[in-house]
User: What shape does this take?
Amino acid sequence: MADPTDKMENIINLCKRRGFVFPSSDIYGGFNGFFDYGPLGVELKNNIKQAWWQDFVHRRDDIVGLDSSIIHHPTTWKASGHIENFTDPLVDCKESKMRYRADQLFFAPVRVAGETIGYISVLEDETMSAKAEEMANEMKRKLAKQGALEPLTLKDYTEAKPEEHVLIPSPATGKPGSLTPPRSFNMMFQTYVGAMQDASATAYLRPETAQGIFINFKNVVDTGRVKLPFGIAQIGKAFRNEINPRNFIFRSREFEQMEIEYFIAPSADWQTAHQGWIEGCLAWFESIGIPRAKLSLYPHPTEKLAHYSKGTTDIMFEFPFGVQELQGVAARGDFDLTQHSDVSGTKLDWFDEAAKARFIPHVIEPSVGVDRVFLALLTTAYHEDEVEGEKRIVLRLPARVAPFKAAVFPLLKNKPALVERAEALYRRLKKRLNVFYDESGNIGRRYRRQDEIGTPFGITIDFDTIEKDAGVTVRNRDTLEQVRMTEDEVVRFLDEQVNG
Ligand code: GAP
Assistant: This one.
């Protein structure tokens, strides 16, 4: 199962088959860029959010939570720069009506012995260099050109000179002449608030949760017991009209973010604070089961920084479709609070008692998508192996995030004494944790059904349990080891495995 495309397909199939993730509006043929989380998916997703909230809010003294509205006063987005800058460069193919992100459409002139014989274009992916090479060779062969093919220099479409736009072939038709020049496309979803449907009623679905935090800065400072440095955390939906949603839930149009705005004094060393947050986030990923070896850092080059950023480092993850952004950690300076102060006329500043001075704090922002953490966990956890001569799919999810923490089985369903004892343990465990009860099919098949959805422990009530009071067996999904424990020990054991 080395092929990464197969791995993604297997994961997507498992997600649908076992109720983790469904295409949105499935009965109407799906809706591109939107997904629904099923009974198991919502558990995994909630566990990720709960682990994040516990670790970054409850277990710290310097971060408080917030749950702001999704639709803010529309001026928020003018002040934040989103109306002007939250754009992607877009290119249309007039013939096929296909639409591409210009920075994901790559092209190169094909040169043979000093002469340009045409252009090739490819869409960005892991194999685009090889595809481009193949296309260039094919062009040379078709045009019967003699001489050596010069090395290709791929550039993205935003770098094309105006005179090149008509020479670059559309990826849809393979022919030049139909691509438009790139133009800016704002990714915010618009809506209308109230009964009027005109410009004065236009509002936006938030494209990030961050601005809800900035516009509540004064409310939190005035009502909380916060002391600088401190953070405000928020988890919630964000919406982006992505031109090219892709790679399952990796890039969708409706997703969830977990964001912290961590405010520091302007005199504080922001680089050290930024680095501290990068390391803290790496450690958190490891703690929930995303291995450090699959994570890397991408510091943004200064000339490519977002309009608000003094420095941004992305934490990258090795997804089956390539190394891609999992989280952004940005140093936003005082950009946002200054903008909202200036535009709203409300001072969003901090009074420093010791220095008897007022200033606008600076901010470090770790921002991560819940759906991307979900996918990173699934792709790490997914394995195929063999148990007792049978192929098995297993999700090696850590107990803290697994949808079910354990499954309880009576060895046989037609023995009332076994069933009664198993049901009693199930009811007892269910008061504390999400556990599953299953009495149908042979025990091997029951284990396998749980392995596939990531349940870390299988608890079996057998004849020794009821006849010799010998406890129950607890089978470990990953080591396949079985140990006997009393029911009291099981309760403590599971609590320790899940809550640490
Ligand atoms: N407030 C800063 C901000 O929103 P971002 O890099 O645009 O920064 C932060 O987004 C995180 O949100 C990303 O690292 C990613 O995990 C997630 N994210 C962004 N766009 C997404 C999309 N279309 N689908 C799923 N997750 C997305």
